[in-house]
């Protein structure tokens, strides 16, 4: 592909990879918000909140390059090329990515490609759903005397298989945080159950930090059924470990979250 610089103005091509946070538009950083006001083009992901895009000035070009499972979407190679093309044509390009650009966001792939063309790149961190989903769902990742660490694992590798790290993580006593695993919940449970007790607490958080957030609580031996009953889906996070029992529901504080009557005794 041939990249042509727009000679009508003297703006230097530059790309900023910006983390939009977990969903709630108010969780973006002040620096990221300021850059959105200064951008010439914004290429955004599917998980970026519409309310956040409304904060981008009307004269700024906005392009949806998001990738969603099961839907038609841009290939990563096309996004890479488009970033370079937009930088040469318009100047400052914001690549607005859900969560944090460097947490399962393929951010480094984009940085490596862009720099090949002599274009400067900076990265603005964002709040990852790794931390935000458990917190907004009332589940701490660590708790003194219960969990001293946590593993973050993707359930969907480039080969569309469970990560081998899940088996290793399950053998530890750490909290497990599994991303991109909503369609593989049964497989995840099967692997973890080989190393942890059936009554190990499990939490599912869907659409974290948003008004329609859903939290489902159970344990290894019933969470698949509970998730099915609650229609747990993407975008969602799976949290496994004794620390999940710190949620108010397990502590006897009922009705902390609005739930359907038929699920009230099993999920929140």
List the helices and strands and how they pair.
Layout: E1 14-19, H1 30-38, E2 41-44, H2 50-53, E3 61-64, H3 76-90, E4 92-97, H4 107-115, E5 120-124, H5 129-136, E6 150-154, H6 165-170, E7 175-179, H7 185-192, E8 201-206, E9 214-219, H8 223-229, E10 236-240
Helix pairs in contact: 3-4
What attributes does this structure have?
Cobalt-precorrin-4 Transmethylase, domain 1, Methyltransferase, Cobalt-precorrin-4 Transmethylase, Domain 2, 2 domains, 5-stranded parallel β-sheet, 5-stranded mixed β-sheet, disordered C terminus
CATH architecture of the largest domain: 2-Layer Sandwich
The average pLDDT value, as a whole number, equals 87
CATH homologous superfamily descriptor of the largest domain: Tetrapyrrole methylase, C-terminal domain
Overall structural class, as computed from helix and strand content, comes to alpha/beta
Residue share in helix: 10-25%
CATH level 1 class label of the largest domain:
Alpha Beta
- Give the topology string: H per helix, E per strand: EHEHEHEHEHEHEHEEHE
Please indicate the percent range of residues in DSSP E strands (runs of 2 or more): 15-25%
Question: What name does CATH use for the topology of the largest domain?
Answer: Methyltransferase, Cobalt-precorrin-4 Transmethylase, Domain 2
**Largest sheet composition:** 5 strands, parallel
What is the overall silhouette? Answer: elongated
Taking all Cα atoms into account, the compactness measure Rg is 20 Å
Quick one: how many beta strands?
Answer: 10
Chain oligomer state: single chain
Q: Uncertain regions: pLDDT < 50 for 5+ in a row?
A: 254-268
- State the domain count: 2
In spatial order, strands of the major sheet run 3-2-4-1-5
- Distance, first to last CA: 51 Å
Number of helices: 8
